[in-house]
Design goal:
The protein is mainly alpha-helical and 115 residues long. Helix content is 62%, strand content 9%. The chain has 5 helices and 4 strands.
Amino acid sequence: MPGADQLSRVFAALADPTRRHMVARLTLADATVNELAEPYDVSVQAVSKHLRVLEEAGLVSRRREAQRRPVHLEAEVFDLMTTWIERYRRRAEERYQRLDALLASLPGEEGGETK
């Protein structure tokens, strides 16, 4: 499955709280490496390493705008994650509905509560 490898990279990239914070920041607007580095007590090189992981996962891209190189969030990658998560959320919901129906059908049960 071609999307599975990317999905693994996306989840691995988002496993780090600093990278999740950077992604959250980029939902507001594109930002430069220096702008993304401001809230952290780390070097610009360390931020660049985090951004490289996000880039390899397809979550961000960089482009040149005159003298700036803003980092841009690639929101369509979230569609891949959402599709995967939603598939399993629906399956879990169906399981709970079947369990609710079973419990409701048991003798002496009304709305899942014992008399």
